[in-house]
Amino acid sequence: MGLQGLLIFLLIGAVAGWLAGVIMKGFGFGLIGNIIVGIVGAFVAGLILPMVGVSIGGGIVGSIIHATIGAVILLFIIGLVRRR
Fold first, then answer.
1. For 14, 43, 69, 70, which has the most beta carbons within 10 A of its beta carbon?
2. Is 54 helix (H, G, I), strand (E, B) or coil?
3. What region, left, alpha or beta, does residue 34 occupy, with left being phi > 0 and alpha being psi -120 to 50 degrees?
């Protein structure tokens, strides 16, 4: 992966983490935290969505949607763990 690919990867992670924080209201973790949540969320979505038969188109918009869904799932789980 070159520098351009890495920057796109981080940008998608940041946008997805920020969107997930907005959707989940109050679960933002700052810029670095949002990037991490977005990247981990993309991984989570990559595992879960194909199991339930969900397929999202390609491209940057599809990647952002995919990573955002995973990040929302991740933030939901974090919220459940924090309550205990």
1. 70
2. coil
3. alpha
Residues in the chain, total: 84
Which two three-digit tokens encode residue 37?
């949540």
The string of pLDDT tens digits covering residues 22-79 is: 888 766 677 787 778 888 888 888 888 889 988 887 888 888 888 899 989 888 888 7
Rg of the chain, C-alpha, whole Å: 12
Sequence-distant (6+) residues with CB within 8 A of 40 are 70, 71, 74
Q: What is the pTM of this model?
A: 0.82
- With the C-alpha atoms ordered 57, 11, 35, 39, is the resulting torsion angle positive or negative? positive
Q: Which residue has the tokens 């907005």?
A: 22
